[in-house]
Amino acid sequence: MAEGRTLDLHLHLLDRQVIDRDGRYVCKVDDVELEVDETGRPFVTAILVGPRALGPRLGGRLGRWVSAIGRRIADGQSPEPPRIDFALVSDIGSAITIVRSRADVDVGSLEGWVDAHIISRIPGSGHASK
Amino acid sequence: MKRLLGVALGILTAIGGFVDIGDLVTNALVGSRFGLSLAWATLVGLVGICLYAEMSGRVAAVTSRGTFDLVRERLGPRAGLANLIASFLVTALTFTAEIGGIALSLELATSVNYLLWVPMLGLAVWLLIWRVKFSIMENVFGLLGLTLLVFGVALWQLHPQWGDLLHQIAVPHKPTNEGTPVYFYYAIALFGAAMTPYEVFFFSSGGVEEKWTKKDIITERINVYLGFPLGGLLSVSIAAVAAIVLLPNNISVNTLGQVGLPIAVASGKLALAVAILGFVAATFGAALETGLSCGYSVAQYFGWQWGKFVRPRDAGRFHLLVLLTLILAVGGVLTTINPITITEYSVVFSAVALPLTYFPILVIANDPDYMGDKANGRICNFLGSIYLVIIVVASAAAIPLMFWTKAGQ
Fold first, then answer.
1. Measured between alpha carbons, how far is B85 from B97 in angstroms, rounded to an integer?
2. Nearest to B76 by CA among A10, A95, A96, A49
3. Interface of A with B in 9-38 (CB under 8 A)
4. What was the ipTM of the complex prediction?
5. Is A84 helix (H, G, I), strand (E, B) or coil?
6. φ, ψ for residue B86 (rounded to 5)?
7. Hey, which of A46, B185, B276, B399 would disulfide with A83, CB 3.0 to 4.6 Å?
8. Does B77 touch chain A (CB under 8 A)?
9. Is B304 close to A111, i.e. CB distance below 8 A?
C-alpha cells in the first residue's frame, strides 16, 4: 500500500504504465481521481483509465474527440472512465503494480472486443511464440 | 562459454542487422555520385546511433520500459501523442520501403516482377511476426545478413589505392559537378539512414522482450560498440565499391540491381548471388523490425500489452495494429511507386523525426530517479548533448533542402 506516501503526481504517477501481479501490462495512468480529507489535503483514490480519462487531459478539439470515441467504444453515454481503486496498488516504481490479475480489473472493453472478434479467430493465437 | 557464445552471436547479428534498405540504397547512390566525399556523414551517424542505442538499451535493462513508454511519461500526453503520430508515420514509411526492398531483391533473384511478390511477402512477414520466437527471428536474419560482407570482399578484390580511399574520407572534396545544397541534402540522407529512429525503438523494446536486467548491460554495450561500427564499416564499403565501379562510368543508382552491380564486376556471378541473399535477409529482417516497432510505439504510448513474449491473444490490440500497418505498407508498395523512391524519402523523413526520439532518451538516461547508478556519466552526457545539436540542425535543414534540391536532383 502506498498510503501516506507523498508523491509528485506529475512525476511519479501520471502517464505511468500499470502492470498486474503477473507482470502483464494493464493500462496507463491516464488520469487520477482525487478526494480531499478533513484537513483539506488532497489524496489519490483511484487510477482513471481509457480515452474518457485521457481526453480531458489532451484538451481542445482533439481531447473532446478522444473522449467521444471513448464513450462510443463503451457503448453508452457515460462520461465516467473505468477506474482502478488505489487500494489495489502495491508498488510505485518505474511502473505501477497492482495486486490483482489483469483479467480481474475492468479497464475498458476494446481489448476484450478485439480478442473475441478478431485475434482469437486466427489460428495460433493461443500459442506463445517464446 | 555459453555467455561467450551469446556475446559473439549478439555481435554478429548486430553487424548483419545493421544494414537495411535505407543504408543499401543511400550508400550506393551517394557512392556513385559523390565518391567517398560523404563517408563522413555515415561515420557521424554511426557514432550517434551507438551512443543513443546504448542509452536506450541501458534504460530498457534498468527499468524494463520501452522507449515510447517513457516518451509519454516525460513529454506528457499531448506532446507525446504528436511525437507518436510523427514517429509512427516515419516508421510505417520505412516499413513500406523495406517490404518493397524484399520484393525488389526477389525480382533480382527470379526475374519475376516485384509486384507479384508483394502479397506473398506480406503474408510471410505477418506469419513470422505472429508465430516465430523473437530470438530466432533476430538471429536468423542477423546471421544471413552477414552475407552482405561480400561488399567488403568485392572492395578488396577491386584492389583500390587504400591510401587514396582513406584520403577521400578524411579530406572530403565535393565533386565539382554537384551543387553544395545537393551535397548537404545527401549528407542528411546518409545521417538519417544510419540513425533511423526505429532502430532504437526496436533495440530497447527487444531488450524488454528478452527480459534484460542490469546484468545484461555489459552484453548490450559490447553488441553496440563492436557490432554497430562493423556494420557501419559495411555501409561505407557499399559506398566505396559504388564509388570505384559506378562513378567513373557515370552510372547512377536507380535500381537495386545497380547497388549489386559493383559486386558482379569485382567478384563475379556467384558473389552477386550471395549479395542478393544478403539483400533479402537485410530487408526482411528490417521489415520485421519496423513492423514490430510500429506496434511497440503505439502500444507503449497507450499502455497496451505488447510483445512476442506473451500469446498473441493476450496482446490482441498490439497484433491487430501490426496487422493493419502491414496491410497499409503492402498497399503502399502496390501503388507501384518505385520502392527506391520510397526509400529515399523514408531516410530523409527519418532525419526530420530524429529529435522526437533522441531528445527524450537523453533526458531519461540522464535521470538518476529512474536509472540510479546506471545514469549517464559526464562523457556520455557531453557527447549526447553535442549529438542533440547535430540532430536538431539536420532535422531542421532536411525539408528546406529537399525542396531546394528537388529531392537531390
1. 18
2. A10
3. 11, 15-18, 24-28, 30
4. 0.91
5. strand
6. -65, -45
7. A46
8. yes
9. yes
**Which tens digit of pLDDT belongs to each residue from B248-299?**
999 999 999 999 999 999 999 999 999 999 999 999 999 999 999 999 999 9
Q: Does B318 fall in a domain?
A: yes
Determine the distance from the C-alpha atom of residue B398 to the mean position of all C-alpha atoms in its chain, rounded to a whole number. 18
- Phi–psi pair at A96, nearest 5 degrees: -100, 120
For B166, the domain range is 2-404
The values of phi and psi at residue B119, to 5°, are -60, -40
Alpha carbon distance B353, B374 (integer Å): 27
Q: Are B194 and B46 in contact (CB under 8 A)?
A: yes
Burial code (b: 16+ CB inside 10 Å, e: under 16) for A93-130 equals ebbbbbeeebeebebbebbeebbeebbeeeeebeeebb
CA angle in degrees (0–180, nearest 5) for B129-B130-B132: 70
In a domain, B193, yes or no: yes
What does the DSSP 8-state code read for residue B242? H
Query: CB-CB: which of A17, A122, A129 is closest to B132?
Result: A129
Integer Cα distance of B359 and B380 in angstroms? 14
Cell numbers for B292: 514490430
Strands laid side by side in the A25-28 sheet: A25-28, A17-19, A96-98, A89-92
User: Which of B19, B95, B97 is closest to B278 using CA atoms?
Assistant: B19
Q: Give a yes or no: residue B409 inside a domain.
A: no
Count of domains forming chain B = 1
Inside any domain, residue B63? yes
Q: Which CATH class is domain A9-121?
A: mainly beta
CATH no. for residue B315? 1.20.1740.10
Q: pLDDT tens string for chain A (130 positions)?
A: 445 667 777 778 999 999 999 999 999 999 999 999 888 888 899 999 999 999 999 989 999 999 988 888 777 667 788 999 999 999 998 899 999 998 888 887 677 788 888 888 898 888 766 4
The three grid cell numbers given for residue A73, joined into one nine-digit string: 467504444
The residues spanned by each domain of chain A are 9-121
Is the dihedral angle over the CA atoms B5, B10, B11, B15 positive or is it negative?
positive
- Work out how many CB contacts closer than 8 A connect A with B: 92
Give which of A111, A113, A92 is closest to B305, Cα–Cα. Answer: A111
Q: Which residues pair with A44 in a beta bridge?
A: A34
> DSSP code of B374?
G
Q: What is the DSSP secondary structure assignment for residue A80, as one 8-state letter?
A: P
